[in-house]
Amino acid sequence: MSFFLNNARIAFMILTTHASVGATLAVLIPSNPILGFAIGFGSHFILDSIPHWDYKLRSSKRNKQKPLTNDIIIGKDFYIDLIKIGLDALLGLALPLFFLGFLQHQLILMILCGAIGGMTPDFLQFVYFKWRHEPLISLQKFHISMHAKTGLNDKPLLGVLCQTAIIVIAFALV
């Protein structure tokens, strides 16, 4: 079971949840892709405020006392992390396309806009780590302030179950 949890988290959370919820919200307003992206983007911060589980990035350098100094170190571990993140992002695009795209093919643009919007704040963190300028500094401060102060990182099974429930509920709403 431990092997499954350690490897399942590589390609499942958290971008998948952000993308799925962003896509679902965007589908609810099918006439405006830009608004769909914006709603997906905004939903990211709301989801981050809920205690959740994150997979670990091996290339991450964290400072809990000074989170604005967190960084990603480019090297062998970064490329391994890039594979994890890429699989997570692909799953985040595939699930909503599969579960929502079958409803109507004309919703595919909205699904993609909402899903990409939901994942963009985490992508912008990587940009911030390598280019610490405005407006990224303010966005990073906001992103940090919105994150839940407690998490489920020590409870991966509960974390995966909660995020899976969020995805199922989001898809069920549509």
Strand order of the largest sheet: 1-2
The domain tally reads: 1
How would you sum up the global shape? globular
Low-confidence segments, ≥5 residues, pLDDT <50? 1-12
Which class best fits the helix and strand makeup? mainly alpha
Number of strands: 2
Oligomer: single chain
Describe this structure in words.
There is one protein chain. This protein has helices at 2-8, 15-27, 33-48, 76-101, 108-130, 136-146, 156-173; strands spanning 60-61, 71-72. It is globular, with a radius of gyration of 16 Å. Helix content is 66%, strand content 2%. It starts with a helix and ends with a helix. The chain has 174 residues and is mostly helical. The chain has one domain (2-57, 65-173).
SSE layout and pairings?
Blueprint: H1 2-8, H2 15-27, H3 33-48, E1 60-61, E2 71-72, H4 76-101, H5 108-130, H6 136-146, H7 156-173
Helix pairs in contact: 2-3, 2-4, 2-5, 2-7, 3-5, 4-5, 5-6
Keywords:
globular, mainly alpha, single chain, two-stranded antiparallel sheet, 174 residues
Concise synopsis of the structure shown:
By secondary structure, this protein is mostly helical. It is about 65% helix and about 0% strand. It is globular.
